[in-house]
Design goal:
Order of helices and strands: HHEEEHEHEHHHEEHEE
Mean pLDDT: 92
Distance between the termini: 37 Å
Low-confidence stretches: none
Helix content: 25-40%
Oligomer: single chain
Number of strands: 9
CATH architecture of the largest domain: 2-Layer Sandwich
Strand content: 15-25%
Number of domains: 2
């Protein structure tokens, strides 16, 4: 059953023609009528010419406008790099002792970063970290000798672009409290990343069939892309 708040929101928005992101952002923000700072989210529907499992899109980008989220970051590294990790703002720092805690199921963090040397030991915990999406990955910048840069990037605001089992992609471009300029910068960064991923995958025709914009507790609108991806 819909709440009184939700019933006051616009209806049949998906029946409207797609509009530019610039026009839709104020509408989506207006629909953020909850008491918390809702996320502004994009959803991409993959062209159905692509078979399930045929696409493997997974990358991470630094959002120029930030994410608005506080991420609890853990670092597994050698003792010599512990201070570097702590100074960069890591919330949890440890070595082999920390790996043992993870092995026992202690996963009180949202992102895990490690050095290449420690990755060899962490790789044995795939069954624990993998299903939670916590396994460090060199492609995503979470396996690096430059711990300072890796932690800084994660803290400043990143977005992971990854298709689900049905091929669709969901990603946040920020918060209701962000000004439109910040949200647009993040949106454009994600579009650029998708263009790059398309060129890295064998895609039949366009990659994106439909694009939608919504908020955490709002309604969806169709986005008109400036060019086909």
């Amino acid at each position: 059953m819909s709440s009184k708040r939700f019933k006051k929101l616009p209806t049949k928005t998906l029946e409207s023609n797609p509009e530019s992101i610039e026009k839709l952002l104020p509408l989506v923000k207006k629909n953020c009528t909850t008491k918390f700072d809702e996320s502004v989210d994009l959803s991409f529907q993959i062209n159905n010419k692509q078979k399930k499992g045929e696409l493997n899109i997974r990358t991470v980008i630094n959002l120029p406008g930030g994410s608005g989220k506080k991420v609890k970051i853990a670092v597994v590294c050698e003792d010599a790099k512990s201070k570097e990790a702590k100074d960069a703002g890591a919330d949890i720092v440890g070595g082999e002792d920390f790996i043992e805690k993870i092995k026992s199921g202690e996963l009180n963090f949202e992102k895990l970063i490690c050095t290449p040397q420690m990755m060899l030991k962490l790789s044995k915990l795939g069954k624990i970290l993998g299903p939670k999406g916590l396994m460090p990955n060199p492609k995503l910048g979470s396996v690096s000798n430059d711990i300072k840069q890796a932690v800084s990037n994660a803290k400043s605001g990143q977005a992971e672009i990854r298709n689900d089992k049905d091929g669709n992609i969901g990603v946040s471009i920020g918060k209701k409290s962000f000004n439109d300029d910040k949200l647009l910068k993040n949106y454009n960064a994600i579009i650029e990343a998708l263009e790059k991923e398309k060129s890295n995958n064998i895609v039949k025709g366009d990659l994106i069939k439909n694009t939608f914009l919504t908020s955490t507790m709002g309604v969806s609108y169709k986005v008109k892309l400036e060019k086909n991806i």
